[in-house]
Amino acid sequence: MLEPSIDKLQTKINSKYTLVTLAAKRARQIQNTKMHQVENPRAATFVGLALEEILEEKLTVDPDQEIIHD
């Protein structure tokens, strides 16, 4: 089962397409920099870390689809 759940994630970002795109871009950034914004991550993967950042509202998206870190 995916954690965090898609239902919880869609309360933060309404579009599944935007959610997937944002998570993929951020996962690549985390992989390259080895830095993330989750204090106690539960995920073992870069995508999981990106999804946790979205759920904790440490990662948002602007209208131009650029990643924004809080």
UniProtKB/TrEMBL annotation:
The keyword Transcription applies. It holds the Pfam family RNA_pol_Rpb6. It catalyses: RNA(n) + a ribonucleoside 5'-triphosphate = RNA(n+1) + diphosphate. GO terms for cellular component: DNA-directed RNA polymerase complex. Keywords: DNA-directed RNA polymerase, Nucleotidyltransferase, Transcription, Transferase. It is an enzyme of class 2 (transferase). Belongs to the RNA polymerase subunit omega family. The RNAP catalytic core consists of 2 alpha, 1 beta, 1 beta' and 1 omega subunit. When a sigma factor is associated with the core the holoenzyme is formed, which can initiate transcription. PANTHER family: DNA-DIRECTED RNA POLYMERASE SUBUNIT OMEGA. Promotes RNA polymerase assembly. Latches the N- and C-terminal regions of the beta' subunit thereby facilitating its interaction with the beta and alpha subunits. This is DNA-directed RNA polymerase subunit omega. It comes from Gracilibacillus salinarum.
